[in-house]
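Reposting from the mailing list since nobody answered there.

I have sequence plus structure tokens for a pair of proteins and want to know whether others read the tokens the same way I do. The first protein:
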Amino acid sequence: MDAVLDDLAQHWQLYAAIPFIAALIGYVTKRVAIEMMFRPLEFVGVRPFLGWQGVVPRHGGRMAAVATDLLTSNLLDVKEIFDRLDPDRFTREIEQPLLRAIDDIARDVLAEHHPRVWEVLPSMAQELLIKQIQASSPRLVRELIVELRDNLDEVLDVKHMTVQYLTRDKALLVRLIRETSRPEMAFIARTGIYFGFALGIVQSIVWALTKEPLVMPIFGAAIGLFTDWLAIKLIFVPREPVWLFGRYRLQGKFQRRQAEVARQYGELIANEVLTTANLTESILHGPRSDRLLAMIQRTVAAAVDQQVAMARPVVSLTVGGQRLQEIKQAAATRAAQRMPETVRHAQAYLTESVLGPNVATMIEQRILKLTPVEYEGLLRPAFRQDEWKLIAVGAFIGGIVGELQVLLMLH
């Protein structure tokens, strides 16, 4: 024991440095683990094994599916959101671009599919026909919007849309997880310092007693492994508050921030995912877009039939049933093609009055009602994927630094 005390007195600076070096190991391994979760967005290295891609972007499709399942099953009812859509207000918002679109579509379709009749019509007759079509268009648009609103599930696959956007835009998925878990990431880094320092004290005592070169790398690896594992666990457990001495609350870091996370998550989904542009794109070009086209075809066919009702015998003779059907089909196709441009003029109304704050508020309120296990599902998949690799990297880095400590102590 005297020899140990003499060694401590002679090299006290080195022994005092061990806990601080251990704290540094703990912090560095945590920061590396955090960055490895999110970076790089694309694989860097030589496939399949020599290289790395961030855990979140690498498993983006799976994580997006998990997040979307939670979103669509517990957090969001898109139909309830769209029930706020006022067909009259929407029609007024797009009235002018709608009339211009109707003018272009009617002239192009008639000139293309029945040029002889169209060309021989006097200009006044052509304008009168266009005006008649335009006059009935707002009512038909309102009917289409009502049908679309009442049958939204038939034309919009929210799960497909969300998975598609989160998978395609890896940076968006990373931002969604990173922004809602920023305090947890800082907590992980801090715990590396605290636990590393505590284990460093034990490490210095063991070194003083044994002078065993393996002590440093073993402890370094243990610090990296244990503190990584423990920090991740402390984010989520205990799920329910545990009170010590009636005053001190123990609860997972992420679990304690449910109200804050609910607000952030709602805003990110509303502003980045379920936007007017994304929903419009999905409705028009998603897996159920053929059903929207069928709705448009029915509406356009009704409009054409209404215009020719008074002159059906003449139309049948001059145009013919087959040509009339072609006109309906062409008009419907052109109307679908012009829809994104036309709807764009109602984007402010849709964002401010239908989507936007309504989506954010709905998600926030429903996250607050989730059970601790359900709420954990917002973030836990990000850590569960390849979690063992992150911990193993922490242990590896800790072992390397421990070996450097040995060299420092021996020299």
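The second protein, same order (residues first, tokens after):
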Amino acid sequence: MINVRSFLFDNKEKTVTIQAYIYSFYYRFIVKHTSTKKLEERLGIRGEETPFEESREKISMVKLYAFHINRITQRLPWEEKCLVRAMTLRRFLIKKHIPCTIYLGVTTQEGKLEAHAWLRCGNLWASGGSGDGYTTVAKFATY
């Protein structure tokens, strides 16, 4: 009951919260049920990066969206992966015409290959950290 009360009375960004739930569910479905080739088409322009400079207003908006998406995806009843978080945030940024880049990387831990996705807007690593420790294997820009 506390979560409902908090949502109704304390959450000033109800629309962002609801959209984040919907988009994360949608992208989770897409990631689970789409071929890699089709999935890549949804990530942006392969091999390109967006500029490392962005206005303060846009960075503030990115921080707001990233905060809500990360907060919400931690509380979902299903497991949320870094790629779904990055795609969800990218969707919000597309709607606001804010350029961003999704990076895909790999590393080995305990003899196993581990994959990771992260998103950058301007000089802000908005989702998934900065990719430290991962070798970037692909990048996708959205303008």
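Reply #1 (J.P.):
I read it the same way you do. Residues 82 and 117 are 5 Å apart (CA to CA).
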